[in-house]
Specification:
This protein has about 375 residues and is α/β, with parallel strands linked by helices. About 40% of the residues lie in helices and about 20% in strands. The longest helix has 19 residues. Bound molecules: 3-isopropylmalic acid (IPM) and magnesium ion (MG).
């Protein structure tokens, strides 16, 4: 493999400390597997606001458009709560998603065997769970116009607009069907076609894509509220779920919690292929910046490390090395290593963030 470029944006809260652990893993692959990454680091979110007065500097945006993949930690924190929307840390992330046109957000919810008893659901409901939520990420109510707070008569009115074009629905549906073909061959599409026109168009468009090109994949439709209920009742009925930006935001948090810990889940946001054939891509843990535990060595670095594993698989065509990394994490967990978010069993001393990173590096070394 030639040199691949990676832009690392640690961001806020626990972002920087989990990213230190990811750097250890990247270095390990460089020294031991010949995967040579040209890594640059930059600011995003509150950290960028503090330095530049904007949550994403234009130069950082330009860099993100040039690299093979972006790896992001987390953005946000209470310090920035009162900033104008256009300056909030989250805006930095939303700008990256929009300008890189990362329309397909892959959020796996996978239950690690060693952690099945961590879920708030019964072990038999979650053990072996492996579903993938595909969330549309660049349109819908997150970006639709008109939006804002206006004054009507003597009161204020808050407005957001759910808007989807057929082509926006079509491309994310395609990416869900393609994924399903490589997994359990099942897609469930979720919307609210019973109350929203955008939901009617969503369902119709997904059906058309299915009939035209993916009739061998099993397709079902569910209203998103019923989908939330079914996710908690019997999540193993699902393989790939495809849904819009806002429903996907909510359903993916629900699915994440089924697995026992938000600290374990990675995500990939993919766009159209670049000139070199690789998709534009940004990888980030599903968890947020967790300001309450930031800087205390309590954060679980696994979600961010697994996000790097997704980068190996989807951006760098290194599926075997991604498997190696995921298996090493399984091994560390099955030997009983736990970070603070995974306590619950008696008599376990938690590992710090950096001890967990070291344990994974050791397991990687044991794997060769
Ligand atoms: C997520 C987050 C973001 C979102 C925030 C931080 C803007 O909740 O990635 O799920 O709402 O999309
Ligand atoms: Mg969210």
């Amino acid at each position: 493999m030639g040199k691949s470029s990676l832009l690392i944006l640690p961001g806020d809260g626990i972002g920087p400390e989990v990213m230190v652990e990811v750097r250890k893993i990247i270095d390990w692959f460089g020294s031991n597997r010949g995967l040579d990454f040209d890594v640059t680091e930059d600011l995003v979110g509150g950290a960028a606001y503090d330095a530049h007065g904007t949550p994403l500097h234009d130069e950082t945006m330009a860099k993100a458009l040039l690299v093979d993949a972006v790896l992001l930690g987390a953005v946000g924190g209470p310090k920035y709560d009162n900033l104008d929307f256009s300056l909030k840390p989250e805006r930095g992330l939303l700008r990256l998603r929009k300008e890189m046109d990362l329309y397909s957000n892959l959020r796996p919810a996978q239950c690690f065997d060693a952690l099945a008893n961590f879920s708030s659901l019964k072990t038999e409901v979650v053990s072996g769970l492996d579903i993938m939520i595909v969330r549309e990420l660049t349109s819908g109510i997150y970006f639709g116009e008109p939006r804002g707070i206006i004054t009507e008569g003597n009161e204020r009115v808050g407005i957001n607009t759910q808007r989807y074009t057929e082509s926006e629905i079509e491309r994310v549906a395609r990416s869900a069907f393609e994924l399903a073909k490589r997994r359990g061959n099942k897609v469930c599409s979720m919307e609210k076609a019973n109350v929203m026109e955008s939901g009617v168009l969503w369902r119709d468009t997904v059906d058309k894509v299915h009939q035209a090109d993916y009739s061998e994949v099993e397709l079902s439709h569910m209203y998103a509220d019923a989908g939330a209920m079914q996710l908690c009742r019997w999540p193993k009925q699902f393989d790939v779920i495809v849904t819009d930006n806002l429903f996907g935001d909510i359903l993916s948090d629900t699915a994440a919690m089924l697995t026992g810990s938000l600290g374990m889940l990675p995500s990939a946001s993919l766009g159209a292929p670049m000139e070199n054939g690789r998709p534009k891509a940004l990888y980030e843990p599903v968890h947020g910046s967790a300001p309450d535990i930031a800087g205390q060595g309590k954060a679980n670095p696994i979600a961010c490390i697994l996000s790097f594993a997704m980068a190996l698989r989807y951006s760098f065509d290194e599926g075997v090395e991604a498997d190696r990394l995921e298996q090493s994490i399984e091994n560390v967990l099955s030997k009983g290593a736990r970070t603070h978010d995974l306590l619950g069993e008696e008599g376990i001393t938690p590992l710090s963030t950096s001890e967990m990173g070291d344990a994974i590096v050791d397991a990687l070394t044991d794997s060769i």
